[in-house]
Amino acid sequence: MSDITRRSFFNRAGVCAVGGLAAAALPGMAPRSASGAQRQDWLALTEESAVEPDLPIIDPHHHLWDRPGNRYLLDDLVADTSTHNVRQTVFVECTAMYRADGPEEFKVVGETEFVQGVAAMSASGIYGDMRAATGIVGSADLRLGDRVAAVLEAQIAASPQRFRGIRHRAAWADSTVVPNLPADAPRHILLDADFRRGYAHLRTYGLSFEGWVYHTHIADLTDLAKAFPDTTIIFNHLGGPMGIGSWAGRRDEVFAAWKPAVTELATCPNVVAKVGGIQMVVNGYGWHERDSPPTSDDLLAANRDWYLHTIDQFGPDRCMFESNFPVDKLSCSYRVLWNQFKKLTTGFSADERAAMFHDTAMRVYRLPRV
Question: Whole-structure pTM over 0.85, yes or no?
């Protein structure tokens, strides 16, 4: 991706036009160049002790990056995850550290090389018992069709023990939600013939696919899952229910449309769900605009129906809780976020909870036992 193309992915609010990821501070928020102190001070206004601090967790969805005024690197991840018993993590692509030189389609491999280095640092044990990025999900332009095979091979070669899958973002929304979405961004990329020719190569290499769409396009993901039943799809961020722009103030309507779409997606046995990732600005809760951050009870009251419907449809053995940090850190602390999940599941069996907090992620991403 060229510098010009990379910049076009991010709007002035610092929100990724395609994936909803925070690339820089949102208006009214302290950037990381201020050492993150103001943001940390705000998060510290809500203090909670960790619920069930010994419960083993695998966090299957976080990012790492180093951008002007905004860093989230291993020391930040270690600090956040130390508030719970996080044993391993899975890194998911976020347009970080692409190569500056070389063929355009191979620049994405730079991100995997970067994260492989971070994972090696973590594996040394110097940073504690938690093992970061034991699984890595990278990117590739699946619209390359058959040409994408060489990119997939390069990604695997960059981290042969850790590379597990591809995320080619398909989160399309109108300009009131994503003002700087490139004009040529396809509205239904998951249905595109060239995309599907590239997607077909994932099964050849045993790679999974991260399905990141907004709620209006969950049906496209279902169609893809049915067309390729032997490729595992991980449903990201509950299908991105929107709550800003043209969708502001329409939460009940969004839920009514989202619910049957998730029910239909769950009929595909090759799909598993990440439960979480809806504390982003695009989801419309406005937590980041409050004088103090939400408590775990606040989060649970707002999110319970979305979470429980997903778990009811997929079952605990096809669900895994996710942090989506540092993106969701715009709204709440890591400790509060996972306290919410623990409170949500107090009525579930020990085996069901173990699946959602740890075992599903270990199985789906083929992670080591640590």
Answer: yes
